[in-house]
Write a structure and sequence with these properties.
The protein is α+β, with helices and mostly antiparallel strands. 19% of the residues lie in helices and 43% in strands. It has a single domain, classed as Pnp Oxidase, Chain A (Roll), CATH 2.30.110.10. The longest helix is centred in the middle third of the chain and has 10 residues, at 88-97. The model has no long low-confidence stretch (mean pLDDT 97).
Length: 140
């Protein structure tokens, strides 16, 4: 497995679970995943969400992507630090990809439209078959 496998797996998984921290309390929630490419794993949230404040205070996260399959399916975990992205072209793209955001009054220059990515870190895949094997970390 390599980083291209990570990109494909993430892009084939529409929902992921992102863990952040609020003080010393872990917080996890399901998110509609946006996309991954060679520059990282991209997410979009609203600035009014608690997660935004959590990520500003502590940018370390772990994301779990899971696809069902035989036994327990396949899981990919990605860990790294988020980077907020203030790029008008990406904001226009997220509005095209997620037109429902416009119903909430979002525009590409709305301060409540937040994009972040995990540009570097490590990932690994897990299946029941590989459960007792050492983790094979993929650095990106």
């Amino acid at each position: 497995m390599n980083y291209d496998d990570c990109i494909k797996f993430a892009n084939d998984t529409p929902v992921c679970y992102l863990a952040s921290a609020e003080g010393d309390q872990p917080r996890v929630r399901a998110l509609g995943f946006w996309f991954a490419d060679e520059t990282g794993f991209y997410f979009q949230i609203g600035a009014v969400k608690d997660m935004y404040a959590q990520l500003q205070a502590n940018p370390k996260v772990e994301v779990c992507f899971w696809q069902p399959g035989e036994y327990s399916g396949t899981m990919m975990r990605v860990a790294g630090e988020v980077e907020f992205v203030d790029d008008p072209e990406l904001k226009k793209k997220v509005l095209e990809d997620r037109p429902f955001l416009k119903e909430f009054g979002m525009t590409f220059d709305h301060p409540g439209l937040v994009i972040f990515r995990i540009p570097s870190g490590e990932a690994y895949f897990w299946t029941m078959e590989s459960n007792f094997e050492p983790k094979k970390m993929i650095k990106f």
